[in-house]
Amino acid sequence: MRHCRRRWRLHRRSSVLEELVLDVRQHDRASFQCGEPALDDYLRRYAVQQSAKGISSVFVLVDDIEPGKILGFYTLSAAQIDAGQLSDAEQKKLPRYPLPCFRMGRLARSLENRGGGIGAILLGLAVDRCLKARMYVGAYALIVDAKSDKVRAFYQHHGFAACPDSPMTMYLPLG
Fold this sequence. Notes:
By secondary structure, the chain is of the alpha+beta class. It is built from four helices and eight strands; from the N terminus they run E-E-H-E-E-H-E-H-E-H-E-E.
């Protein structure tokens, strides 16, 4: 998994973007700033530890011009959700016990890349990774916990639905 690498070219830039597993020897965590102190602190202080302990996997987006500079990152971990937290329509077609899911615990793009679509790219990469993992491990949805109304609107724009009893917890069915 350490050598997992995906590349593509954005037409508005002359660089090639790559999604990689966070590597402390290669990626500069100290200079990353997204404007949210808790996310910056997580990347600097906890990401490596949690990854090593199997709590979450951390993926970074970099470009080939400055491969050590982190443009954004996201984390994934295993999770579950009670079917009763989903919409009535979803509940009707699902079993009545907790459903296996993936959780995107964090997603952040650097301040320099605000408005450049990096957040949407990171979200797409996370969903793609979940869909690929789902071929080997059962999982119903990708879950996120929005920390603000602005963040909730971002996820809603990308197809996530709010849990009726907890509108800041959102899910995207992977089926």
